[in-house]
Amino acid sequence: MKRGSPNPEGSGASAAWEGKSRGTPLGYRIFIFLIDRVGLSSAYLLLYPVSLYFVLTARSAGSAYLEFLARARPGEEKRPFRARFKAYYEFGKTLIDKVAVMSGKEDLFDRDHSAGTILKKIMDDGKGGLLISAHVGNWEMAGFLMKRYQGKVSIVMLDAERAEIRRVMESSMLQKEFEVIGLGQDLSHLFKIRKAFEDGRMVCIHGDRAMPGSRTAEHLFLGKKAHFPLGPFAIAAAFDVPVCFSFVVRTGDRQYAFKATPPLPADRDPLVHLERFVGALEETVREFPYQWSNFYDFWQNVPDLPHKRS
Asked: In tens digits, what is the pLDDT along the chain, a chain of 310 residues?
């Protein structure tokens, strides 16, 4: 499984984001083999026993997900077995679809690129731009929807995959289309991001997970304070580039929609950008709660506050 995936440790302790993938190279090779030799549907079938396994063993991750579901879609958490099974199954489909598109099979999917008009205008202006997303839906699909902007997209990411799993994944990938800016403990990525903007590139970053030891800010999310990384929103405030929030969600069988907000008004306060982002994220997860991929205690035991819906 990928970062933030179910943690099948079997204890009752709170799940926490470990910043790295779970699973084995063999598991990834099995899915790659099935997709290549038998087809996508066969890989989906294998998800049934895998999802059942996580329902039975990943107790802390399941509890964390049910807390999220109770806030995003109140009432559905009252059928916990069904809810957890569906969440793990949908998460597994996201991973399989990721492998499929990385191995050049993006034609298997129907894609609604409704963000295209917004992104084209930003790219045509040549001043660069910032896309902030989250771990909901399938962001990897966005990469292939943005191939038309080859050479003009930079993706900021934490490269915390286990080395052997990363090698298996890379062996199935076609030529990389984008520049990858790695997040580290130093500030070198900020200089690379500045250079990307100067070159008129679109910089893509997630705004929902913080690296250990990084600066965070609290904000009400689905009725309870959560910690968000401050970095993406500080970047939005510091640079004079268009800022959009973007999500790629599954809308049907092998169907994805790539959506983006219009460029937001400039503001030098990172907390203003965070507030806007949380509003867009809440709207997305309420509509697609089973595509939430943060299987850990997202609120980290911060006390409840009155729930104000956006």
From this structure: 333 444 433 333 345 445 444 455 555 666 677 777 778 888 899 899 999 999 999 999 999 999 999 999 999 999 999 999 999 999 999 888 888 887 778 788 888 888 888 888 888 888 899 999 999 998 877 766 776 666 688 888 765 544 444 554 455 444 456 777 877 667 778 889 999 999 999 999 999 988 777 889 999 999 999 999 999 999 999 999 999 999 999 999 889 999 999 999 999 999 999 999 999 999 999 999 999 999 999 998 555 554 444 3
Number of independent structural domains in the chain: 1
Q: For residues 288 and 248, give the distance between their C-alpha atoms in angstroms, rounded to a whole number.
A: 11
Note whether residue 26 is domain-resident: no
Q: Is residue 75 part of a domain?
A: no
Task: Note whether residue 256 is domain-resident.
Answer: yes
Domain that includes residue 158, residue range: 108-289
Q: If DSSP states are collapsed to H, E and C, what string results for the chain?
A: CCCCCCCCCCCCCCCCCCCCCCCCHHHHHHHHHHHHHCCHHHHHHHHHHHHHHHHHHCHHHHHHHHHHHHHHCCCHHHCHHHHHHHHHHHHHHHHHHHHHHHCCCHHHCEEECCCHHHHHHHHHHCCCEEEEECCEECHHHHHHHCHHHCCCEEEEECCCCCHHHHHHHHHCCCCCCCEEEECCCCCHHHHHHHHHHHCCCEEEEECCCCCCCCCEEEEEECCEEEEEECHHHHHHHHCCCCEEEEEEEEEECCEEEEEECCCCCCCCCHHHHHHHHHHHHHHHHHHCHHHECCCCCCCCCCCECCCCCC
Do the Cβ atoms of 169 and 95 come closer than 8 Å?
Answer: no
Residue 56 in any domain: the answer is no
